[in-house]
């Protein structure tokens, strides 16, 4: 991560919906090649199926893509992802530890916005990527952006949904918990000004979870490709299918959310895999 902000500017939804409907898609691990795989699973095929299913059934106001778009920073992966949406819906992107979105920011500036400004909710995109590191961290610029967003939401009597790549909490999975945002406590302190009107959605861990930490509801979402086994000491795959998260932000500050999984038995990872880079 550098000192220059990657995420800049606000998005105002054209019809200012009473209920904001979002889809979260995460950890696509695209290679820019239709034959690209991760542990034997074709990542283009799985991502396309998940995204097509999400857009066919949810009609979201916006899609949040929460990092690890590319398998290893491949420039063609970002155009590959862009093609799946084909301007059907606004999409906002975050970088993950496998990404090099910063090198592509000129081409994808419309996807690299800081915030959605809604009638009853704001949505804040926060970068946790650290160059050359697997784990996450909030720079001072990201904490400042969080501070401003919390203050704006409080002043407008609104709730706040925050999207990150790395989670802000431990998931009782030793190898993954070492990669959580290392200064999450600083962010949680800032969030306390909104009490229980904050929700955080994250990727990175390739699994579904839902917990409340210091009054903040924290969700993680399955990858569009391989899934990690929950509560594992070392790297281990789960046999669950890929999926996405549907989120409906209610005017009263409540949310409705569920994970929808997409079955494709002909596109599955290699069993017994011991990890990837």
What is the terminal separation in angstroms? 20 Å
N-to-C SSE series? EEEEHEHEEEHEHHEEEEE
Q: Would you identify the regions where 5 or more consecutive residues have pLDDT less than 50? A: none
How would you write the strand order of the largest sheet?
1-7-8-9-10-12-11
Here the CATH topology equals Purple Acid Phosphatase, chain A, domain 2
> Please, what is the average pLDDT?
94
CATH-level-2 architecture: 4-Layer Sandwich
Q: What class do helices, strands and sheet pairing give?
A: alpha/beta
Number of domains: 1
**Quaternary structure classification:** single chain
Main β-sheet, in a few words?
7 strands, mixed
Strand content: 15-25%
- What's the total helix number? 5
Helix content: 10-25%
Number of strands: 14
The named CATH superfamily: Metallo-dependent phosphatases
Text of the CATH class? Alpha Beta
As a whole number of angstroms, the C-alpha radius of gyration is 17 Å
Name the shape in a single word: globular
